[in-house]
Amino acid sequence: MALSQTELKREVARAAIRYVEPGRILGVGTGSTVDLFIDELAAIRDQVPACVSSSVRSTKRLEALGFKVIDLNELGDEGIGVYIDGADEIDPGFSMIKGGGGALTREKIVASVSKTFVCIADASKKVDVLGRFPLPVEVIPMAAAAVKRRLEALGATVTLRDFTTDNGCSILDAAGLRIEDPKALEDEINSWPGVVTVGLFANRGADVLLLGTEAGVKTFE
Ligand code: 5RP
Q1: In the structure, what pLDDT confidence band is assigned to residue 78 with cuts at 50, 70 and 90?
Q2: In sequence order, which residues have a C-beta less than 8 Å from that of residue 63 and are 6 or more positions away?
Q3: I need a labelling partner for 35 at 20 to 30 A (CA). Which of 53, 69, 132, 152 fits?
Q4: CA of 215 to the centre of ligand 1 (A)
Q5: What number does the ligand 1 atom closest to the CA of 104 have?
Q6: pLDDT for the residue 64
Q7: ipTM topping 0.95
Q8: Measuring from atom 1 of ligand 1, which residue has the nearest CA?
Q9: Alpha-carbon span 117 to 33, nearest angstrom
Q10: 166 annotated to bind ligand
Q11: Quick count: other Cβ atoms within 10 Å of Cβ 72?
Q12: Comparing C-alpha atoms, which of 98, 93, 130, 132 is closest to residue 30?
């Protein structure tokens, strides 16, 4: 019988445990796959001195399981060794669309100070070209209409998500983009006034992809 998407997520969550560096601060992403990863992590809690979390959601789950969660500002120059997070889509160059769970800004910040980004995803997330999943863009609320118009000018169909981020901002979801050059689009949207973060992780993509498939977990590096 075929494995469910949740079972595939659980498999990659388990496989990610071997990337945790004992004794080092761990970066933890957000989402249903990461929730399963946090549950698996509980078995090696004594090896994780502290975590930096990318959302209130993950912080609560980590703390409920007895992990210490520190603010990124408490971290020294050493940064974070490994950051483990999911994705909504990932392409062959390891560029990703992220932010389906609304945590894209903090995810991008934590990823930016991490040496290795390990992406954990079920097989449905692997695509040839990004854009089937609507691209999330976090915006300062007063800029929502202006940024929406600019995204529409690129050919997207844009909806304002009924959601407020951990940073008190809004999210626009831009559907219908075929993203052939993710780095260029990330740079362009980042340059628009009012944009906090675009959910394209291309300039700093993943380093390792653990993909949950029917044939087992595949590792791409
Ligand atoms: C949250 C994210 C998640 O990593 C992404 O939405 C994947 O989520 P899930 O593991 O639930 O499929 O970017 O902002």
Answers
A1: confident
A2: 69
A3: 132
A4: 22
A5: 14
A6: 97
A7: yes
A8: 101
A9: 15
A10: no
A11: 16
A12: 98
Q: From the candidates 89, 107, 138, 186, which is the catalytic residue?
A: 107
Residue among 211, 76, 193 at smallest CA distance from 137:
193
11 carries an active-site annotation: no
Q: How confident is the model at residue 3 (pLDDT cuts 50, 70, 90)?
A: confident
Beta strand 135-139 with 195-198: parallel, antiparallel or unpaired? antiparallel
CB neighbours of residue 201 within 10 Å: 28
Q: Which amino acid is at 184?
A: A
Which of 5, 32, 36, 209 has most ligand 1 atoms within 8 Å of CB, for mutation?
32
Least confident range from 63-77, 95-109, 166-180: namely 63-77
pLDDT tens digits, one per residue of 153-206: 999 999 999 999 999 999 999 999 999 999 999 999 999 999 999 999 999 999
> Side chain identity at 206, as an amino acid letter?
A
Q: How many A from CA of 99 to the centre of ligand 1?
A: 6
Structure tokens at 72: 């990124």
